Amino acid sequence: MKQHKSDVTVLGGGLAGLSFALQCQREVPHANITVLERREHPVPEAAHKVGESTVEVAAHYFGEILGLKQHIVDDQLPKLGLRFFFPADGNERIEQRLELGGKRYAPCPSYQLDRGRFENYLGDLCLERGIRFLDQASIKDITIATGGQHSVIFDLQGDQQQIQSRWLIDASGRRAFVKRKLGLQMPSPHTANAAWFRFKKHVKIDQWCDDADWQDGHQGKTGRWYSTNHLMGTGYWVWLIPLASGSTSMGIVAAEPFHQLSDFNSFDKALSWLETHEPQCAAAVRDHRNELQDFRALRHYSHESKQVFSANRWGITGEAGFFHDPFYSPGSDFIAFANTFLADLVRRDLGGRGFRIRAFTYDRIFKRFYYGTLTAYQNQYELFGDSTVMPVKILWDYLIYWSITAFIFMQGRMCHPSMYMRNLGRLKRLGKLNHFMQEFFSRWHREHGNHVCAGCVDISQMPLIREMNSRLKESLTSPDFFRRFEANLQQLETIACEIIDHSGVEVDHPFHRAKHAWVHSDTFARVLTPSPRQQSHREAESATASV
């Protein structure tokens, strides 16, 4: 049996594994890194994977930290943010649905990534930079050492080989070699299912309506089809994502008990399901069914892990560890978080510095980020068809994201334990505040929500939203960082009070209104009023007034 040695062995050469290898090589140039990937490279473009839509953290990670921005700008597609259409009149006319999205690009960029094209580029880059990248390598067994060298036995084109390494990084996706070997699997309380498919043509949502007023502001590169489009309904959402290869990714995501996977777990069933819930989308699918490229369904896609980083020199990144929900496109964000923690651990260890306490600390921090984000999805799908409450919740979730995880990561302080200790009180306040607000949105929905609304909420015209997004690009000194963190918290507490005051729901506030309001008391109500041009329902007027 042929023997190899390596400082770091990565199980899996997909997005998580290849990006980790590149980050580790940049931070630890002398490290000997091996990536084992079972598929043959190059892979087909429009590869059969989810995760094409990136948001601010992942865009910053790939573009700036890994230095891939030129490839992304030249060979991928820009993303006109996330866009949401709420139900109205049987969902047969897109222009009658309340729309939440922007007409111009956000200050902080995001992208649509053709996963096949992107992973091919990452694989080539690994080889160029001296990383041993072995494709068609089928992993047969792993031995995880409590001390000494980890061992991986793999088959390479019929030849069984073994590699021993100081560090073992599991980026194998749902095969989850390390998690299964160590019995770290955990079910998720969030039970939802998904089916997704691709067409070898751009399916442009802009072509679903030829009304000039509806088309206004969405010409050329600001067409709606450049967004990650969400068609919303009670217990479900449908995505449409364009890919640079010319394909369109489409998927159905639905939570139990509202919808069962058996209702859409084949293409014909998915089409029938769309005809019932999203007839206009179904018509577009029928028109392009001869250009169907693939189909896949996944039951209970959310899963967890008891541990992701270990002082025994192993770690987990990507779907091999945690995955909660694709609604806000967070998958690549958590790859960025995990890879950053792991690269720092490897750098410290190979540099002769202490890493064991850090491994324990980073594991706890990563899981806190995960569970803090999970509150945005768990038991929240009942709200998805509510055009009164859900737009407010979405904007709240944006502000939470930009004020905590995105803020910490993009300011380069993810691996600063002292930062977490100094902000421990603020982080606890933010966690309690967000948990309270997620429960509040559910109560608001049950008591006063679900009015029918029409119109367009153009978030690119909201000063608060644009300002908070733009702040992510600032480079702050340490004192400025801590001042901004406190300001973010006070601003969120003020906005939370404002939302509650305008909801009509009677609650006891678990927090006090900030003494110095960052926004006027009616700002959130005013900016959520859809444009008068499309106020076609009396219900919309009363609903937006209550917001």
Poorly predicted regions are: 512-521, 533-547
Radius of gyration, taken over Cα atoms and rounded to an integer in Å: 23 Å
CATH topology name of the largest domain: FAD/NAD(P)-binding domain
Described by strand count, sense and barrel closure, the largest sheet is:
8 strands, mixed
Counting helices, strands and paired strands, the structural category is: alpha/beta
Distance between the termini: 68 Å
Strand content: 15-25%
CATH architecture of the largest domain: 3-Layer(bba) Sandwich
Separate helix tally: 18
What's the CATH H-level superfamily name of the largest domain? FAD/NAD(P)-binding domain
User: If you average the pLDDT, what whole number results?
Assistant: 92
Helix content: 25-40%
Which CATH class of the largest domain applies here?
Alpha Beta
Total of domains: 3
What's the total number of strands?
20
Overall, the morphology is globular
